[in-house]
Write a structure and sequence with these properties.
This protein is an alpha+beta fold. It has helices at residues 25-29, 33-36, 39-52, 65-72, 76-88, 118-127, 142-147, 187-190, 195-201, 220-226; strands at 92-95, 99-102, 112-113, 129-139, 155-165, 168-177, 208-217, 233-242, 248-256, 261-262, 267-270, 277-280.
Length: 282
């Protein structure tokens, strides 16, 4: 049985010391996430996904530390650290003399889904709580002003929050509003609500949105807020919401834990034309 090795093998000719002036820009640019994320966290991520998928039934023990070490090509110390994280999240139960058992989360503990806009607002407000980190007027960063299509150096509202469910924090978001929408949102009235729901309640229609999704690594501050390791992988989402005239009314920049969040859309098969395509289902 071949070992599933975490990380990237380095050819012998590449293992020499880098020049005195350090690695080349190309080498730095080509480093993958597997070169940065600690191996124990990589193992933890794989195991927690398997547990949530029900790979190991609760009544039977999971493979031994030795078996996992052989599968992932890492030491038992690395496996123990990954299992410690799973135990802290109550995803495994260790029984002396019997082994380690999977303890999948309850059915109502499914990952949060923000695939829609207004469709997911009620779900977010009912199942989660927020902690406000900052709320106030700021000079919009240049890239933010461009995305909101307002003049550079414009003043707008920035809301920085961490959202949690019963399992702990899962998202860190920065929301920017331009005028006149910024004047409609107050800290006291916002509470646990999403900003979009408050805008809609104030009579601001949301007609369309653009979303960009990518991956990134947690820095020290975000890792502390989301209770994860530094350099842990995160989903990065940028969403621009527009009114019926096409003018941006809200910009959200969010970082989400991939083990606690999922992005879901519905697609339908469009058979029109010569080449059928998958289309977003309304």
């Amino acid at each position: 049985m071949h070992a599933l090795r975490i990380g990237t093998a380095v050819p012998q000719e590449m293992s020499r010391r880098p020049p005195k002036d350090g690695p080349t820009r190309a080498a730095t640019r080509d480093r993958g996430i597997s070169d940065v994320v600690p191996r124990y966290y990589q193992v933890y991520s794989v195991l927690q996904q398997r547990i949530r998928a029900g790979v190991w039934p609760p009544e039977g023990p999971m493979p031994t530390e030795e078996a996992f070490a052989a599968e992932f090509g890492v030491s038992r110390v690395t496996i123990r650290r990954a299992l410690d994280m799973l135990e802290q999240e109550q995803l495994v139960v260790r029984q002396q003399g019997r082994g380690t058992f999977a303890a999948p989360p309850p059915a109502d503990g499914a990952p949060m889904n923000f695939g829609g806009l207004l469709e997911s607002v009620a779900d977010a407000e009912q199942r989660t709580k927020v902690h406000v980190l900052s709320f106030g007027r700021v000079v919009l960063p240049d890239d933010t002003a461009r995305l909101l299509e307002c003049p550079l150096r414009s003043v707008g509202l920035r809301i920085e929050r961490v959202r949690s469910d019963p399992g702990g924090p899962f998202s860190y978001t920065k929301c920017y509003l331009r005028e006149p929408e910024a004047a409609l949102v107050t800290r006291q009235a916002l509470g646990n609500r999403t900003v979009l729901s408050m805008l809609v309640a104030a009579g601001v229609p949301a007609a369309a949105a653009e979303q960009r999704i990518s991956a990134t690594l947690a820095d020290v501050d975000v890792a502390r807020l989301l209770k994860i390791e530094v350099s842990a992988p995160l989903i990065r989402l940028t969403r621009i919401v527009r009114n019926p005239d096409g003018r941006p009314i809200e910009l959200i920049q969010g970082l989400y834990r991939p083990d606690r969040y999922e992005y879901r859309v519905k697609l339908s098969r469009d058979r029109g034309g010569e080449a059928p395509q998958w289309m977003l289902k309304q």
